[in-house]
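To: structure subgroup
Subject: Chain for Friday's discussion

All,

I'm putting the inputs and outputs inline so they're searchable in the archive.
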Amino acid sequence: MRIAFVAIGFLFLFFVSNAQDKKHKIFISEDAKPTLDLNPEEEEEEEDRKKKKRKKKTFYGYKTKKAFTPPITRGRKTILETFYVLKHFEQPDPYVKEIYYYDVARKKIKTARANKIVNDPKVMRVLHGPYNRYVNKAAVETGIFYLGARHGRWEMFNLDSALVDKQLYYKGWPQESEIRYYDLEQTQVKEVVPVKWGDKSGDYVYFNENGSLRITGKYANDIKVGKWRLYHANIQKRHMEIQYAENPYDYDHQPIVLREWDREGKQVYDYRKSEEPRYFDEDVLEKLQAKK
């Protein structure tokens, strides 16, 4: 009997000991086993750096070169601009009103219509890629260019780095702009209505079917403002200059004709030589804008 109790005691101790060993045993999964790669993340970071290096100075598929304007000192302010220019010439969009380029001789950034941009790197270089303007080393304007046109988000700051304005563009047009085309393929722009924060605001353009200008002007808060210009149909010649109120809330102002030219370019009217102002018939413009 005593021998039986002793045997049972030994068996009890054996199972308790085995259970404790299992409790404290550490299991290592295949994923957690140590390898010879002491820092796998470093290898991944190196691969990312290589990829970024291959794409350096390439924006939207176009290779560029980094450039800057010589620092200009005005009183206590030193102004500097950094930007990128196309490495190989690409023709800007002919419909965009302002194309930004670097004037090589004058060493400054200027604007021109697309048909004035020439493929001569000794004369001008089209801007393409990030742009920054600094005043006393503080960034006061940042944005990006696409083949000379403003693109994406543009931001303006004061010298304390506080945001004072922001604008969104898409390849030269305000991002919310309403664009109409002559063709289904959307290659021939007919009209661009600038829209900002839901209202017509900014530069308005209307083109002839051959790409020449027909109407240019500005909107502010859905109202025509400033000087509008009409061109003759299908030829790039001035037809009429119309003056709207500079203030969109000047409801008493009536648009007047400043000057008019015939299709041969001969001036047939000048308000400075007229005794009475010649008011412009808005129906003429509205009918033209309403054409589909």
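Points worth raising on Friday:
The longest strand covers residues 77-86.
The helical segments are 2-24, 40-54, 282-290.

D.
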